[in-house]
Amino acid sequence: MGILLAGAGVPAPGRGSRVVGALLALATAAGLISGCTSAAPHAVTRATSAKAAPRSSPAEASPPASRPAAVNVYAHIAVGMMNLKWARDPYRVYVPNSLSNTVTEISPHTYKIIRTFAVSGQPNHITPSWDGSVLWVNNTDGYSLTPINPKTGKPGRPVAVADPYNLYFTPDGKSAMVMAEALARINFLNPRTMKLRYSMPVTCAGVNHLDFTANGRYAVASCEFSGELLWIGIRARKVLKTLTLGKATTAQVTGPGPGYHMPQDVRLSANGKIFYVADMAANGIWLINAHHFKVIRFIHTGTGTHGFLVSRNGKYLYISNRGGGSISVLDFATGILVHKWRIPGGGSPDMGGISPDGKVMWWSGRSSGVVYAMSTLNGRLLAKIPVGAGPHGVCVFPQPGRYSLGHTGNFR
User: Fold this and answer.
1) Got the DSSP string for 152-204?
2) Can you list the residues of the chain whose pLDDT is less than 70?
3) The domain 4-34+43-397: what is its CATH number?
């Protein structure tokens, strides 16, 4: 397929969402509708101990009261800080087309497609391994991970893994964590062989994104269908706390109105003190205290708030508003939205990555069948590249950083 430079026509929209029974169909509809209220949503900030979690010591039972402040947890993703293990890998953009069951590889230098190859059912994200030696295609319905050699861009033999909707790696690199959304569990795997080590059940619905605290001991995971967040002890492999944001989208049969919540992407602030959580139903982001696991406040960003990217200098959080066709920019230090960039002609930005030089952000057009290249300086649309149907978790590789925490490329 060819390239559509800024100002060119937009291809016919596709439908880009995971279908997991009636529950997911409902969530898809919720993600594509317009905002239902201009008022800030009401948060039910009820934190409860997870019923399914075994008894633990007092030190594990709740988030720690205080932690040394991290100056910048993203200090190692700055321009020029490429890990030597992958520094010579060719710079490419990898696109999983979830409804076409294909992966498209793009040259970011020419905006041209290098190759497209078939994978198993419903690839949702492409995830760099902890050590950057392989890129894993998350074939959710195919119950497999397809390895891509980042030195050649060519796929290998799929590895059997149960329900890999999303994939993460613990900061120490000792475990892979598969977000088995449809199975209501998080599976801990050998990070190289992807063999199951431990299966951790969750009582929420739609567990799918997470990020880790600055010290790597805990993680916050989002549960999109039940409107909840989980506080997870990584060493204990336990859900220690649950935070309810509001009414679950499973409680209604039409598009969500006031009070309904659908948490999506999760990302830690540069200073390690706040978890930002995108809420696709509430059309904004939650600020969660990373020490006490409590809601700080909510910020409205735009319709269908979905994904996060962090700037190379660790100063800004780029926020995709999938239903509104826009990108909001948050200043980490001040907590203020400083920009809102709209895609000309509309769009459906979802997940993506930042170029190694920090100048270009790449987003999938989830329901538009394209990938967007946009300037991080002023939000200017540089190109629209037609790909397959339902492009989802776009991976930009290589990127600066010491190691990958997973998803589409959350490096530290």
Assistant:
1) TTEE---EE-S--SEEEE-TTSS-EEEEEGGGTEEEEE-TTT--EEEEEE-SS
2) 1-70, 251-257
3) 2.130.10.10
